[in-house]
């Protein structure tokens, strides 16, 4: 791991130094660059994208961003970096862990179907969506399942395997206990753990990004 | 030759030192605007000069521009800062009459340096046909220099920046990339030849280009400065038009392509990208060319929207000024994107 503290240095210095550090680095080498402004993060991302390096950023505060660039070329973690107005981002609880889980991002599934319209189509879409979730470079921290969504983590659902895959990748799968009781599914839960409305409310209020298929 | 103190002198200057357009727009939007029918161009359009009508056939143009050094030599810096400040008058189609110096300079530094800066500035004001009539100086820890310029114009002949016609040709009168070259020089990565090209371009006043384009059916005009070619172009397209730019026609300082590949990238260029990137569609455009199109320009050229029939003749005349310039695109009816680069 190469570490560069580029705080207090103006663009293009952080980018040039990171580029130099990575130039002769072997595949798998990681360069950690600490910068103090969002524009430097964006310029580093431009460099990483153009060079085919993978990129990740962790925002510690408004003046401290830790960028990780690695010479892998594959499985690049592309983190959304918005305009300069997004500096307040730093205050949100958005950060990446090493394995591609995005902290503060949760998926809420409250129905067995996706979208409104034909029910059969809705079920197909939901199955496809959960499978697609397993294929993402950036995954949510938690998947919350309640009401009709509770069926998805139980015996007879064709999403059980995909939810297990997510669980293996470090995503927490939580199903509402009240819902399991109501639908008489308590004995049939196949993946993840049981939760309650207290925890559901806590997760949703603390989340920085909620995904609702 | 005077003694130089280059370390203190030049620190990421020129138009790269400008505040970002997004930040600025937020602040300016909050200011209350007094209506005055004689204020023909003011701060509710995106122009950076004000035009005020005095009589039916006479209006005054008022502008101001100053910034920190972007080159090592103080005399050259003075020339460039002045050329840049004078340019706003020419972008409107006006003529320069008087100018006032704006100076921030550390008292502890060699006053010969200040002398060289002011000499460079004065020469450009004179070349523009104007008179340097005073100024104001502040003891400040970092150097900044520029001018407040006063000019005149006929109220019916003002070139606004957003009055294009569909079918117009777009001309650019100077090469892009001076921001990238200055940045490369700042980190020791620019060739002497590239720096010379940039200085030659930055120190040329836009008077000559302005006089040429005024002879033709020019519908809109602006000068390309810190917001880069694409932000200025987006302002020019307003809500009504879309510019289609031919990327192979863009004049730029040749070495810039390599410098962009070396990631000599400024914060200002990225701010420009953040500001209008969503309004621009790039088709098969290289990374380096994108950077060149977002590059902040110090004392950049005029961007002119002109009747397509006249553009060829105007281009032939502009070429005689000795800088690379070109017909870079056309104005079309407004589409989803404001600019298409292909």
Automatic annotation (TrEMBL), chain B:
<keyword id="KW-0547">Nucleotide-binding</keyword>
<dbReference type="GO" id="GO:0004756">
    <property type="term" value="F:selenide, water dikinase activity"/>
</dbReference>
<dbReference type="GO" id="GO:0005737">
    <property type="term" value="C:cytoplasm"/>
</dbReference>
<dbReference type="InterPro" id="IPR010918">
    <property type="entry name" value="PurM-like_C_dom"/>
</dbReference>
<keyword id="KW-0808">Transferase</keyword>
<protein>
    <recommendedName>
        <fullName>Selenide, water dikinase</fullName>
        <ecNumber>2.7.9.3</ecNumber>
    </recommendedName>
</protein>
<comment type="similarity">
    <text>Belongs to the selenophosphate synthase 1 family. Class I subfamily.</text>
</comment>
<dbReference type="GO" id="GO:0000287">
    <property type="term" value="F:magnesium ion binding"/>
</dbReference>
<keyword id="KW-0460">Magnesium</keyword>
<feature type="site" description="Important for catalytic activity">
    <location>
        <position position="18"/>
    </location>
</feature>
<feature type="binding site" description="in other chain">
    <location>
        <begin position="45"/>
        <end position="47"/>
    </location>
    <ligand>
        <name>ATP</name>
    </ligand>
</feature>
<feature type="binding site">
    <location>
        <begin position="135"/>
        <end position="137"/>
    </location>
    <ligand>
        <name>ATP</name>
    </ligand>
</feature>
<keyword id="KW-0711">Selenium</keyword>
<comment type="function">
    <text>Synthesizes selenophosphate from selenide and ATP.</text>
</comment>
<dbReference type="Pfam" id="PF00586">
    <property type="entry name" value="AIRS"/>
</dbReference>
<comment type="subunit">
    <text>Homodimer.</text>
</comment>
<feature type="domain" description="PurM-like N-terminal">
    <location>
        <begin position="47"/>
        <end position="152"/>
    </location>
</feature>
<dbReference type="InterPro" id="IPR023061">
    <property type="entry name" value="SelD_I"/>
</dbReference>
<dbReference type="GO" id="GO:0005524">
    <property type="term" value="F:ATP binding"/>
</dbReference>
<dbReference type="InterPro" id="IPR016188">
    <property type="entry name" value="PurM-like_N"/>
</dbReference>
<feature type="binding site" description="in other chain">
    <location>
        <position position="18"/>
    </location>
    <ligand>
        <name>ATP</name>
    </ligand>
</feature>
<dbReference type="GO" id="GO:0016260">
    <property type="term" value="P:selenocysteine biosynthetic process"/>
</dbReference>
<dbReference type="Pfam" id="PF02769">
    <property type="entry name" value="AIRS_C"/>
</dbReference>
<feature type="domain" description="PurM-like C-terminal">
    <location>
        <begin position="166"/>
        <end position="341"/>
    </location>
</feature>
<feature type="binding site">
    <location>
        <position position="88"/>
    </location>
    <ligand>
        <name>Mg(2+)</name>
    </ligand>
</feature>
<feature type="binding site" description="in other chain">
    <location>
        <position position="65"/>
    </location>
    <ligand>
        <name>ATP</name>
    </ligand>
</feature>
<dbReference type="InterPro" id="IPR036921">
    <property type="entry name" value="PurM-like_N_sf"/>
</dbReference>
<feature type="binding site">
    <location>
        <position position="48"/>
    </location>
    <ligand>
        <name>Mg(2+)</name>
    </ligand>
</feature>
<keyword id="KW-0479">Metal-binding</keyword>
<feature type="binding site" description="in other chain">
    <location>
        <position position="88"/>
    </location>
    <ligand>
        <name>ATP</name>
    </ligand>
</feature>
<dbReference type="InterPro" id="IPR036676">
    <property type="entry name" value="PurM-like_C_sf"/>
</dbReference>
<dbReference type="InterPro" id="IPR004536">
    <property type="entry name" value="SPS/SelD"/>
</dbReference>
<keyword id="KW-0418">Kinase</keyword>
<feature type="active site">
    <location>
        <position position="15"/>
    </location>
</feature>
<keyword id="KW-0067">ATP-binding</keyword>
<feature type="binding site">
    <location>
        <position position="223"/>
    </location>
    <ligand>
        <name>Mg(2+)</name>
    </ligand>
</feature>
């Amino acid at each position: 791991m190469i570490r560069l503290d580029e705080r207090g240095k103006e663009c293009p210095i952080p980018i040039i130094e990171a580029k130099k550090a990575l130039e002769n680095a072997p595949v798998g080498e990681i360069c950690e660059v600490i910068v103090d402004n969002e524009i430097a993060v964006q310029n580093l991302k431009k460099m990483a994208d153009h060079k085919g390096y993978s990129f990740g950023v962790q925002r510690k505060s408004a003046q401290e961003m830790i960028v990780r660039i690695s010479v892998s070329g594959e499985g690049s973690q592309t983190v959304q970096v918005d305009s300069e107005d997004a500096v307040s981002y730093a205050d949100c609880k958005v950060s990446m862990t090493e394995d591609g889980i995005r902290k503060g991002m949760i998926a809420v599934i409250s129905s067995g179907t996706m979208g409104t319209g034909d029910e059969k189509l809705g079920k197909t879409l939901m199955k496809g969506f959960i499978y697609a979730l397993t294929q993402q470079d950036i995954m949510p921290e938690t998947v919350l399942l309640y009401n009709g969504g509770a069926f998805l983590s139980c015996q007879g659902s064709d999403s059980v395997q995909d939810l297990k895959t997510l669980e293996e990748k470090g995503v927490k799968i939580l199903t509402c206990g009240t819902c399991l009781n109501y639908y008489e599914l308590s004995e049939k839960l196949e993946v993840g753990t049981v939760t309650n409305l207290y925890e559901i409310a806590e997760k949703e209020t603390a989340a920085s990004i909620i995904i609702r298929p | 030759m005077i003694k130089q103190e280059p370390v203190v002198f030049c620190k990421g200057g020129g138009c790269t030192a400008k505040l970002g357009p997004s930040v600025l727009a937020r602040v300016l939007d909050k200011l209350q605007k007094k209506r005055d029918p004689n204020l023909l161009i003011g701060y509710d359009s995106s122009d950076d000069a004000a035009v005020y009508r005095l009589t039916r056939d006479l209006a005054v143009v008022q502008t101001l521009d100053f910034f920190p050094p972007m080159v090592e030599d103080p005399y050259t810096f003075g020339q460039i800062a002045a050329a840049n400040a004078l340019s706003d008058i020419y972008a409107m189609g006006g003529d320069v009459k008087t100018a006032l110096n704006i100076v921030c300079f550390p008292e502890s530094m060699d006053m010969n340096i200040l002398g060289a800066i002011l000499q460079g500035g004065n020469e450009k004001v004179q070349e523009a046909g104007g008179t340097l009539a005073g100024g104001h100086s502040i003891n400040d820890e970092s150097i900044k220099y520029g001018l407040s310029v006063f000019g005149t114009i006929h109220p019916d002949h003002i070139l606004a920046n957003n009055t294009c016609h569909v079918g117009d040709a777009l001309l650019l009168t100077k090469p892009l990339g001076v921001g990238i070259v200055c940045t490369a020089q700042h980190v020791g990565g620019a060739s002497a030849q590239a720096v010379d090209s940039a200085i030659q371009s930055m120190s040329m006043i836009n008077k000559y280009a302005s006089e040429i384009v005024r002879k033709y059916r020019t519908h809109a005009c602006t000068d390309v400065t810190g917001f880069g070619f694409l932000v200025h172009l987006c302002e020019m397209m307003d809500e009504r038009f879309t510019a289609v730019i031919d990327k192979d026609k863009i004049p730029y300082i040749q070495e810039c392509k390599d410098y962009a590949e070396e990631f000599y990238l400024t914060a200002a260029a990225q701010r420009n990208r953040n500001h209008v990137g969503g309004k621009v569609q790039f088709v098969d455009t290289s990374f380096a060319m994108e950077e060149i199109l977002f590059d902040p320009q110090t004392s950049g050229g005029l961007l002119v929207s002109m009747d397509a029939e006249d553009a060829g003749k105007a281009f032939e005349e502009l070429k005689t000024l000795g800088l690379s310039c070109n017909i870079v695109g056309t104005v079309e009816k407004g589409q989803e994107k404001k600019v298409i680069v292909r």
